[in-house]
Amino acid sequence: MRVAVPWRSAARTDIGKIRSRNEDAFLDCPQQGMWVVADGMGGHQGGDVASQLIVASLADLPLLDDFDERLKSVRQCLHWLNRRLGQELTVIAGRHDGIMGSTVVLLLVEGNRGACIWAGDSRCYLWRGQRLYQLSRDHSLQQHLIDEQRMSIAEAKAHPDAHALTRAIGAAAQLTLDVLEFEVHPGDAFLLCSDGLYQNVSRAALGSALSLTAPHLALQCLFDSALRGSARDNLTAVMVRQ
Fold first, then answer.
1. Within 10 Å of residue 216's Cβ, how many Cβ atoms?
2. pLDDT tens, 98-150?
3. 10 Å Cβ neighbour count for 122?
């Protein structure tokens, strides 16, 4: 029998100050031990449709008793979504506005087991022992330049296509997901968020918010901080803690 774990969570999204529509989506399901943030590919047709489809499809997955089977089910669902969104692809030389895609970052927790699954540059952070850790690693040109070209962070950020994605759901025929499995410790807190949020909030502000015991208060601090800045993109975050 599944034993309920007292996870508490809160989620919030905001259109920001520039965009005309919100292409982000989230899933906040503490009773299933699953949380998701999806960021539709900005400027691409159907980005909001893609992110909403990802969230809705993951929410409909059966609640399996075995953690490994649940993890397998999530991965199969994301690969199926990649194929489905790929069928919407319209290839016209020199144009990419027919792509329907989205980033995804997902947290799955049961007992003392946890897993983070992602494609794209939406992130998962862990707050443990008064320290902030970034569990996910961006699938972006900026991160690629840092890893492969040995560029400094400042040099990579200066590249005109720094924020271009190297992976996303629906962006290519073959999808490669990154999966990080870990042991959950008492007192752990997690933050899933789109790039629109973390690009407008300092690392110190992230840690300060995650140290708060009430998830909704943590989100209020993060969004207040982000919306004091330019907020040029949609902002979405899910805060999770015991």
1. 13
2. 568 999 999 999 999 999 999 999 999 999 999 999 999 998 767 767 666 66
3. 31
The region that residue 148 occupies, defined by phi over 0 for left and psi between -120 and 50 for alpha, beta otherwise, is alpha
Mean pLDDT value of segment 183-195: 96
The CATH class, in words, for 8-137+171-237 is alpha beta
Helix (H) / strand (E) containing 116: strand 113-119
Q: Which two tokens stand for residue 185?
A: 């410790």
Kindly report whether the global pTM for this prediction surpasses the value 0.85.
yes
Tokens coding 56: 């809705």
Among 104, 85, 94, 116, which residue's Cα sits nearest to residue 26?
104
Residue indicated by tokens 């809160």: 10
- The residue with tokens 């299933």 is 32
Please tell me what DSSP assigns to residue 5.
P
Q: Please state, in angstroms and rounded to a whole number, the distance separating the CA atoms of residues 31 and 38.
A: 20
What's the count of helices (H) and strands (E) in the chain, helices before strands?
7, 10
